[in-house]
Amino acid sequence: MKKLKKFEIPMNQVIDTGPSEIVEKFLDVSEIENEKNHSLVRIDINMIEYPLFTKSTSKKKNQIIRYFFNRSKEAYIQVNPTSGDYIPGELEERVFIALLKIMRDKRYNNMFYTTISEILTNMGIAQESFKGFYGRISKALIRLSQTSYTFKNSLYSNKIKGIIEEQINTNIMNIHMISVKQAQESEKELFTDRRIKEVIKVSISEHFYDNIIRKGYLVYDSQLLLSMDNPITRALYMLINKLRFNRMYIKVLSINLIKRIPLSENIQKIGRTIKVIEKSCQELKKMNLIENYTVIKNSKWIESEFEFYFNETHNELKQTYFYDDKNHFDNLLITHTDSGVDLKNDGNHHFEAVKAETVDRIPTNEKLEEILKILPSKARELKTLPKVIKDGIRQYGFEHIKFVAEYIKVQKVSNIRSYMIQALSKGWAEDYITQQKKNTAQKVKNDNLKLLEIEIPQEVSVNKEIVGEVDNFWNLLVLEKKLVIEEEAYRDYIAMCGVEGKIQKMAFNAAKDKIIKDYLIKNIEKYTTQEVVNLKNTDLFNNSEDVIDIIEISSTEVDKNENTEDLSTGNESIKLNTAQEAKNVEIKKIYKNMSMFQLDLLDLLEGENIKEVNKIIRLLGITKFFEGELGNLHLVLEYNEDEESIIKINSLI
Predict the structure, then answer these.
(1) β-strand partners of 629
(2) Alpha carbon distance 118, 411 (integer Å)
(3) Where would you tag: which of 185, 317, 479, 504 has the fewest CB atoms within 10 A of its CB?
(4) Which residues of 504-534 are buried (b: 16+ CB within 10 A; e: fewer)?
């Protein structure tokens, strides 16, 4: 290994500004009971990778610390305390972890309300000790909101899939203390408990929040993190888990760990610092969070390295954390985007943006074909161009690639593939894209005005004539026939799209109710003439006399043969039969598509809470996996395209 000279290692720069004016604010909060217990939290990559919370026990007021990450000093983080205060440390880190847990419990909204009592509960502090912590937590919250961070070529953003190559000045979060008198009308309900005099309105800063709701995070158990009394052990655990990904073995330079935890970099005392890290390694081993570790001194301590060893159990735990959190978040994503409600500051627009960006960056053959249609005709002859286009969609998004394709066509270039690569990497089309977006925005505005003047009245008049008939018809149908019509509506939708792929399926599921209704409006005559006769003859209407007879017979059969309790109506007996059949079911087979998998599931869960069933069905459309409870049933559902899928239902009774 090459020996490092002392002057080659950039030292962290400490700037002492001396005495400054102290700005004081009176803040006070009362307790609120917290009943949440799920402990997984998402922690932003920057929080793990960089020393945003000092581990030093000798902090000074007005001390600015700048952490360098390369020898040229072009990449660094500067931590700037508010005048007369310290930079955030151990207590602030614990408070922030508790706030991430509370944010998760409150549906990942960027803005949420809490109290110091709720924070203390999530920190694992005993209630009888709350009183002694109120003042300290208030100061920690103020410090977290008032400390500013300067990121120079160092802040990671999942939105751009890399480091932001400019200077960013931001804080971690903002807080606002609200008393009963200050509360707005929409906030009055927060004070229904008369013991609550003040609440804290918290919003995580956008750079960090964007990473948390996208893929710029790692999942940790907040209770585990907060149970670590030693902040160095906590920082080391989070850091090595980030560095190793799923590897069973990693080797890290000691100086790398020292800079990122961070610890003292004094060359004369570096041996002592390494012993501090080694003590934390021993704690992690005792907690079974690593299998083993070794310290390699090499010729000097400054050149020493740490080796960390892991096993399959650690990877399984990490994967369990990830999927449990992902299922929880995907469920929230569906709930937000399907609610049809867009309240101010509730975080919905962030979820909509994440969903749209996810779809926009999935390269499909349909998107490839659309791009090739825009480019000059000779683009189809280039065998390597499709890969460039798909890679571009993954990195920049489909809409961006469309604009770049238009720009290339306007430029009339000869070497299309090379020009596209250069245009994407060097931003040649940026001015064109900006102008096109302005033109599009203006066109949409004009079109909306026209719609308001012309199209909406016509649409309303049409709806008045047939929508009532469609609604009545739909309400008369039983589930089996509704599923048949849903499949027909899906086929009609695919025919209009011209292709069938994952994107079309996702789009159909997202707007299924409207698409089915539009399909029925177009084809209502088909179903209200001969189709109605057929339906009546086959007992598919809920209000037909034949169905009533069948229900009565079913009820009799249950009383006679099943020895069940007397039921007041035939409908209940049918639900009982369905539940009995669904108590212990295990199906393993290959499905033609996700829709067929969902149809089987709907049949098996008929009679259960339809809202909860629909949530599970929609969640499966995104995650392809679900495990959880529905009423008195435990479900394990896994869809594998072109492979064996699993439906496992067991009674909890």
Answers:
(1) 634
(2) 60
(3) 185
(4) bbbebbbebeebbbebbeebbeebeeebeee
173 sits in which H/E element = strand 173-179
* Distance in angstroms (rounded) separating the CA atoms of residues 349 and 352: 5
In this predicted model, what pLDDT tens digit does every residue of 65-86 receive, in sequence order? 888 777 778 888 899 998 889 9
- 336's CB contacts (< 8 A; 6+ apart) are 107, 347, 348, 351, 352
Please write the tens of the pLDDT for every residue from 337-353: 444 334 344 444 555 56
| Tokens found for residue 616 | 């599970």
For residues 218 and 261, what is the distance between their CA atoms, to the nearest angstrom? 17
Crossing angle of helices 512-528 and 456-476, rounded to 10°: 70
What's the first-to-final CA gap in the chain, in angstroms?
64
Q: How many CB atoms lie within 10 A of CB 292?
A: 12
Strands laid side by side in the 198-204 sheet: 111-114, 198-204, 173-179
Residue 193 DSSP class: S
* Beta-strand relationship, 63-68 and 167-171: unpaired
pLDDT in tens, 577-614: 444 444 588 888 888 778 778 878 887 887 788 778 87
Confidence (pTM):
0.50
- The amino acid at residue 139 is K
* Residues 95 and 139: beta-carbon distance below 8 Å: no
The H or E element that residue 150 is part of is strand 148-152
78 and 65 in contact (C-beta within 8 Å)? yes
Nearest CA to 623 among 603, 643, 637, 608?
637
Q: Residues near 150 by Cβ (< 8 Å), separated by ≥ 6?
A: 76, 77, 78, 80, 167, 168, 169
Is cis: bond before 262, omega within 30 of 0? yes
- Of the pLDDT bands very low, low, confident and very high (cuts 50, 70, 90), residue 94 is very high
Q: In what order do the strands lie in the sheet with 167-171?
A: 13-16, 63-68, 76-80, 148-152, 167-171
Task: Report, in angstroms and rounded to the nearest whole number, the Rg of the chain calculated over CA atoms.
Answer: 30
Measured in whole angstroms, how far is the alpha carbon of residue 8 from the centre of its chain?
A: 41
Indicate the residue type of 374: I
User: How many CB atoms are closer than 10 A to CB 619?
Assistant: 20
Work out the average pLDDT over 345-372: 68
What the block records as the tokens of 366 is 């349909």
Take residue 328 and report the two structure tokens written for it: 């929880």
Task: Classify the C-alpha dihedral 29-33-38-39 as positive or negative.
Answer: positive
